[in-house]
Design a protein that fits this description.
three-stranded antiparallel sheet, alpha+beta, Arc Repressor Mutant, subunit A, 3 strands
């Protein structure tokens, strides 16, 4: 199978490096991650992060929870089971591509 064939079998939203970084961050932890934590760890602007998480939410890859704590809004994100499966699929495809390069 050609490398391009492997990569086309991954979720198209994960082709973007920022969305992939968001998904990797959320998939790595079982608890929800708040907006400010994502913002700081990924070094994005608020608008940039907001637009990417909106696309991921619309695709069903993440869940968004909004609440008020002491009259301050708090938004958290969690990877859905579908999102986790897509991240694992992406990693498997990349590993398949890299194995021949690594001599394995």
């Amino acid at each position: 199978m050609k490398p391009v064939d492997l990569l086309t079998k991954t979720h198209p939203l994960l082709a973007d490096r920022v969305r992939l970084a968001i998904m990797a961050t959320l998939a790595a932890v079982p608890e929800p991650v708040d907006f400010n934590t994502l913002l700081a760890s990924l070094e994005l602007t608020k608008g940039n992060l907001a637009s990417h998480v909106r696309r991921l939410e619309q695709a069903g890859l993440i869940e968004v929870h909004k609440e008020f704590i002491d009259r301050k809004p708090r938004t958290t994100y969690r990877c859905t089971s579908e999102g986790l499966a897509e991240v694992k699929n992406y990693l498997e495809k990349v590993e398949t591509l890299l194995t021949p390069i690594q001599g394995g």
